[in-house]
Amino acid sequence: MRALLYHVLFSLLFLGCLASKDRSVRLIKLSKLKKFVDDLPDMPRIKGYTVSDGVPISTTLSIGMYQKLWKFHRDLPPTPVFAYGITKATATVPGPTIEARQGVPTRVTWTNHLPKKHILPWDPTIPTAESSSNGIPTVVHLHGGIHGPTSDGNSHAWFTVDFKSKGPLWSTKTYTYPNVQEPGNLWYHDHAMGLTRVNLLAGLIGSYTVRNPTVEDRLGLPSGDEYDRNLVVFDRSFRTDGSIYMNSTGNNPSIHPQWQPEYFGDAIIVNGKAWPSMRVRRRKYRFRIVNASNARFFRFRLSNGLRFVHVGSDSAYLGRPISTENFLLAPSEIADVVIDFAESETDVAVLRNDAPYPYPSGDPVNEVNGKVMRFVIERFSEADESRVPAKLMRYPKPAMHRAVKTRYIAMYEYESSTGEPTHLYLNGKSYDDPVTETPRAGTTEVWEIINLTDDNHPLHIHLGLLWVVEQRELVKVDEFKECMKKVNDAERCHVGEHARGRRHAVPRYERGWKNVFKMQPGFLTRVVVRFALLRPGFGYPFNVTGEPGYVYHCHILDHEDNVMMRPLKLVL
Ligand SMILES: *[C@@H]1O[C@H](CO)[C@@H](O)[C@H](O)[C@H]1NC(C)=O
Ligand SMILES: *[C@@H]1O[C@H](CO)[C@@H](O)[C@H](O)[C@H]1NC(C)=O
Ligand SMILES: *[C@@H]1O[C@H](CO)[C@@H](O)[C@H](O)[C@H]1NC(C)=O
Ligand SMILES: CC(=O)N[C@H]1CO[C@H](CO)[C@@H](O)[C@@H]1O
Ligand SMILES: [Cu+2]
């Protein structure tokens, strides 16, 4: 996909009026907004368990979705947002961080208190949850969670205010998260059919951490509310009245009046503030960083050369820490890093981003979206008992030889006669086409993902855990693409003869169990997918073959909505 004109417009010193049918488009001149003036917020933390006689036991939370005003920056007027919270008054963007205990179920009743009208333009011509004016459809997915199908937030299990309207696959008000996955980093976000991109843009996102003190405390990593922090990063653009700006004209307006292939904003928001600042002590901190952008990739680097020590990835701890100077985070990927500010030679470090957008072939970053946040470091060092041990956690390695099946997943983009993207599919199929991926519970499979588009697509698999084993460039790609377009069958198109190009090493900090991975354009990416818990001998404590099943999809939200998503049903 070519970089679109509006990326450029966002970054111009642009206060003039653009003609628009609905509201006048007066964008905030982001380059004029002062950076690093707001303190980095820490989102409210909610325990997903209660403690009885010193033992954590299961609890039920009630978390609502509310429309309210949110200040993204000292000098921006308040912005209408959709926010998660226990009450409207305490609702935040991102929502509260839920702290769960491994093995202790957290139940959540998600409630919708949103008004009838969306604050952002959505497009009824893509497959969309339509509530016939009974409010805004929403449904929550806990990303990275291992839980039963009825609690997975299927896109067709949406509901509106007071459950007035419900989607065809809705079945329950209260979701159960058994928290049986390994300690690590999850996030929750909206997943309603065709509305995921706008509901997230409006603010429906939050962090979720699974902890197990018995196995984690001995690691000695920075811990406690002050030194173990969640950072939720996303990009937005704003009008001069403070409202979130999203182009309401599609790139193919005669086909899709509103849908655009990728949303980019130029203000980089961390924990709900644009370019915030955080005072840190001269010691180690742990940051669990979620990329909650619709389409923006981030390549992070610290201005003073401090390194990131990766201890975990998006589903589990790494076996050993990996130190890097920079790293790339796709939408919805999570990095779990330790930064040791004691090693800083300066008192200030700016977290920068230099990933082109769209990634990898789009525009370079500019002065505005190249900055993320600032750390102001105390002058004097202090005693720091935390450490990064040489060995973290041991998990089973991917067992390719035990794989019971190989599947090919081809990514296609379709264009209008003018060469503008109209929609994207996996394996040439829409979401509502009959299920084709039906793995057996407890088994391991190999998925070979073939990216036949020009974009990098982060592929996310619900329930399963993936380990990337190889990235191989496709040779004679035009011939292969031609054949795939005709017959849509990798084997008949002799995939083996095309997946022979150069190998791209998987970065060391991503060699672990994950739930999202970046599929490079023109590559075949081979991943081992495990449909079992990591602890051998433990089965899923829920009916994994139940309705409505699971899904897998591209995590560029604009693609997922139109419709780079497929059902995934487990069988026994
Ligand atoms: C909105 O998108 C349309 C279609 O791509 C484009 O022509 C228009 O310039 C965009 N508007 C703005 C303000 O960027
Ligand atoms: C954040 O996630 C989005 C959506 O998954 C992705 O498009 C984007 O590139 C990611 N950005 C960063 C900084 O990782
Ligand atoms: C699991 O769900 C499937 C599909 O709904 C159903 O046929 C099966 O009986 C359920 N199994 C159990 C043990 O409840
Ligand atoms: C950027 C890039 O490598 N794009 C390639 C993606 O894959 C398709 C088909 O395999 C190629 O046509 C593109 O050139
Ligand atoms: Cu995609």
UniProtKB/TrEMBL annotation:
Principal localization reads endoplasmic reticulum
Tell me the ranges covered by the Plastocyanin-like domain, including all copies: 266-343, 416-568
**GO molecular function terms noted in the UniProt entry:** copper ion binding; oxidoreductase activity
Say yes or no: keyword Membrane present. yes
Q: Looking at the UniProt record for this protein, which Gene Ontology cellular component terms does it annotate, in alphabetical order?
A: endoplasmic reticulum membrane
Compartments it resides in: Endoplasmic reticulum membrane
| Gene Ontology BP, a term | meristem maintenance
In the UniProt record, the signal sequence range is 1-19
Sorted alphabetically, which keywords does the UniProt record give?
Answer: Copper, Endoplasmic reticulum, Glycoprotein, Membrane, Metal-binding, Oxidoreductase, Signal
Bilayer topology term? Peripheral membrane protein
Q: Which InterPro entries match?
A: Cu-oxidase_2nd (IPR001117), Cu-oxidase_C (IPR011706), Cupredoxin (IPR008972), LPR1/LPR2 (IPR052152)
Which family is this sequence assigned to? Belongs to the multicopper oxidase family.
* Role this protein plays: Multicopper oxidase that may play a role in the maintenance of inorganic phosphate homeostasis.
This protein is called: Uncharacterized protein
